[in-house]
Write a structure and sequence with these properties.
464 residues; alpha/beta; FAD/NAD(P)-binding domain; Polyamine Oxidase, Chain A, domain 2; Guanine Nucleotide Dissociation Inhibitor, domain 1; 3 domains; 14 helices; 20 strands; 34% helix; globular; binds flavin-adenine dinucleotide; oxidoreductase activity; oxidoreductase; FAD/NAD-bd_sf; Flavin monoamine oxidase family protein; Flavin_MAO
Length: 464
């Protein structure tokens, strides 16, 4: 990867963003013989995957897990030598609801029969509705208008969800969409459930979305993948402006200009708004950028000498409706230590505090969940995605009611010579690293087809 230099580049395609979508699009186009430049606004590649270190162990501050069905991201990882390890699930899970702690084996928490029946009914209804959603174009699904007109919370009200069901759905909403159930449209929730292979698959570790993670970390995969592109990738290059004339596009950063035949923008939908387009984006395309805003999510890692909870028969997996932390997982590299607990934290009560306050909040909750030994951490790290200075946000957009039907259909509609990718634009697996890679592949085929048509036309003209 190169640092920025004063220069003008002339290439076939300029790719904006060096997350998995941008890197995949660039690779595919280079493989097809086209010249490519990738411009990344951050000082690193990877986007929503980012490596941190705690007690000498590399950890995923952003995107982490892959399932056996995530074949696209796995192919990328295989190409650069990534090794998966299964998510640790042995032992009992911990549940903390309304101040009461319980532990349970398997996937069904220890709740009253009435609570379990209510939760099962809600889950079944969501799964049934999700099956009717067109994952590529949810806005065209039967009853799309109706499903997009209410929030998840309103729907839970109508279905008479009990407080336990609401508590669990709030936790799921915070981790999947980085918001509250009142902030997200039912249609968008159903699309994600469909895209993530159903409710159970979305939540499961064994055999599901949280099945395994990479020893090297996911950003290390992105870094290696970017390295194969060599000096085509420029970091510290936030794109400010994209101008189109009849024959191509000019893409400008603060100190670099790229003239290309096509541009591919792979930022999250919200961050398209950070670029000035000439001609300007259509009203619906601007509406998309304004309304498909990323939710927020924070992650903390607390390291101990040993994974002490395992000796107590606990898996380290916990779900709680109280306080800052709402889900934990054991991501220890070995039973001998260090023991590492990963905690998803609620940005609204976490991000504004100083680091030592955040650490104290997390450790206090881990003591409640796993006992007094949790009071003696040897190291700590966290990352608040919502407060990133560039391209802030969480894993997925918190798409509010009406915004899917009103603006969703323009998401992949080219703006002249500007084409779009990014995990949000994927159908199946949208919102995951796998979706990001798939979107990069889709857009590279789209643009390669156009380049081929132009090349054939030019050749015919030259021969005439
Ligand atoms: C906390 C967290 C946990 C997650 N957990 C998982 C998980 O376990 N499994 C999973 O599959 N997925 C997970 N995800 C989601 C996953 O990380 C993303 O879906 C995926 O990485 C998105 O890739 P992308 O290339 O589409 O977008 P990004 O990675 O966001 O890449 C877009 C890039 O564009 C850059 N950019 C933005 N604006 C500009 C500009 N103007 N100029 C130049 N560059 C710009 C950004 O800096 C960014 O690098 C998680 C995400 C988060 C945040």
């Amino acid at each position: 990867m190169t640092a920025l230099n004063e220069a003008t580049h002339n290439v076939d395609v300029v790719v904006v963003g060096a997350g998995f979508a941008g890197l995949s699009a660039a690779h595919d186009l280079v493989d097809k013989g086209y010249s490519v430049v990738v411009l990344e606004g951050r000082d690193r590649v990877g986007g929503r995957v980012f490596t941190g270190e705690v007690a000498g162990v590399k950890v995923d501050l952003g995107g982490t897990w892959v399932s056996h069905r995530h074949t696209a991201i796995r192919e990328v990882a295989e190409q650069v030598g990534g090794t998966t390890v299964p998510q640790f699930t042995e032992g009992r899970s911990t549940l903390w609801l309304a101040g009461k702690r319980s532990t349970y084996k398997g996937t069904i928490p220890k709740l009253s029969p009435a609570a379990l029946v209510n939760m099962g009914r809600i889950q079944l209804a969501l799964d049934k509705m999700a099956k009717t959603i067109d994952v590529d174009a949810p806005w065209n699904s039967p009853r799309a208008q109706e499903l997009d007109a209410i929030s998840l919370e309103e729907w839970l009200d109508r279905k008479r969800a009990r407080w336990t069901t609401r508590a669990m759905m709030t936790i799921i909403t915070k981790v999947e969409w980085g918001c509250q159930p009142s902030d997200v449209s039912l249609l968008h929730v159903l699309r994600t459930i469909r895209a993530f292979g159903g409710f159970d698959f979305m939540l499961d570790a064994e055999g599901g979305m949280q099945e395994s993670r990479y020893v090297e970390t996911t950003q290390a995969i992105a870094v290696r993948y970017a390295a194969l592109l060599g000096d085509r990738v420029h970091t510290n290059a936030p794109v400010r402006r994209i101008t189109e004339d009849g024959d191509g596009v000019t893409v400008e950063t603060d100190s670099l200009q790229v003239n290309a035949r096509y541009a591919i923008v792979t930022t999250a939908t919200e961050h398209r708004g950070g670029i000035e387009f000439e001609p300007a984006l259509s009203e619906p395309a601007q509406g998309l950028t304004n309304s498909w805003r990323l939710g927020a999510l924070s992650k903390a890692f607390v390291a101990y000498d040993k994974p002490f909870w395992r000796a107590d028969g606990l898996s380290g997996e916990a779900v709680t409706d109280t306080g800052t932390v709402f889900i934990t997982f054991d991501v220890s590299p070995s039973p001998d230590g260090p023991g590492i607990l990963m905690a998803f934290c609620d940005p609204r009560v976490f991000d504004t505090h100083a680091s030592e306050v955040r650490k104290a909040q997390v450790v206090k909750q881990l003591i409640d969940l796993f006992g007094p030994q949790a009071a003696r951490p040897i190291d700590y790290i966290d990352h608040c995605w919502g407060t990133d200075s560039f391209a802030p946000g969480g894993p997925n957009p918190a798409v509010a009611p009406y915004a899917s039907v009103r603006y969703g259909s323009v998401m992949t509609e080219p703006h002249g010579r500007v084409h779009w990718a990014g995990t949000e634009t994927a159908g199946e697996w949208t919102g995951s690293m796998n979706g990001a890679v798939l979107s990069g592949r889709r857009v590279s085929s789209e643009v390669a087809r156009l380049l081929l048509v132009t090349d054939t036309h030019d050749r015919k003209k030259a021969l005439a």
